[in-house]
Amino acid sequence: MDILKLLSETFLDWKAIGEVLPKMFAVGLPNTLVLAVTSGVIGTVLGMLLALMGISRNAVARWIARVYTDILRGLPPVLTILVIGLGFGPIIKQLTGSTSPYPLAIAALSLMSAAYIGEIFRSGIQSVDKGQLEATRALGFGYGASMRLVVVPQGVRRVLPALVNQFIALIKESSLLFTLGLVAAEREIFQIGKDAASNSGNLSPYVAAAIFYLALTIPLTHFVNWIDRRLRSGRPEKKEPDEAAAVVGKGAQA
User: Which pTM does this prediction carry?
Assistant: First the structure.
């Protein structure tokens, strides 16, 4: 019983949780979503560019994409965040006069996600049967038009679950931005929980942060599963009007 009481006091101090919840709702949740969505959009654009460079006929473009992807995927996320956030911070300050690391936090997440999203897009595009490209070329389409109108859309559709999974990873990786020392109004969920835990000497604020992350990621995980099932099974075929009428007629006779 003493152990249960100790665990309850350590992780389920409702007073500490209640004190941190308003700030998590008002500050942490919006910032986490802004960081994840903004870096997700930028990372998707850069990732598509990397994917097209990776399958390009130009050897230099393929080499640049390969080196970028290998480096950004090979480094630990926290190291990339520190190198970009702290390494380029003084340069940004000198150019703009701004001391906020928020833009650099978005840049770090965007550059990291681009490396992964680029590989997702590349694998999806290359999974499309080569006959699709050959058929469009036979119809008179150029290479660029064939890729833009036929091959790339099919490849993107096939990797939608992986793209949503990458967005889930971005939500979780935003917790590493506490290393940049975001100002109070820019802090995400984890840093608010961390600050509250440090002030109270109790781990319950971390539990509150975990609940917020789970509330964001679990629905997205089920959404990924739903997309995957739809892509695997395909949409149900629509019956022709006369077939549908025949089915209705049989049901009425029965």
Answer: 0.82
For residues 25 and 19, give the distance between their C-alpha atoms in angstroms, rounded to a whole number: 11
Range of the domain at 229: 30-184+219-253
Q: Is residue 150 part of a domain?
A: yes
Q: How many domains does the chain have?
A: 1
Task: With beta carbons less than 8 A apart as the criterion, state whether 42 and 170 touch.
Answer: no
CA distance 142 to 96: 44
DSSP state at residue 148: I
CA dist., res. 245 & res. 239, Å (int): 9
Which conformational region is residue 146 in: left (phi greater than 0), alpha (psi within -120 to 50 degrees), or beta?
A: alpha
pLDDT at res. 254: 41
* 214 falls within a domain: no
pLDDT tops 70 at residue 219: yes
Amino acid at 165: N
Distance between CA atoms of residues 48 and 27, nearest Å: 32
* DSSP-assigned letters across all residues of 22-45: HHIIIIIHHHHHHHHHHHHHHHHH
CATH of the domain at 50: 1.10.3720.10
> In terms of Cα–Cα distance, which of 129, 130, 122 is closest to 163?
122
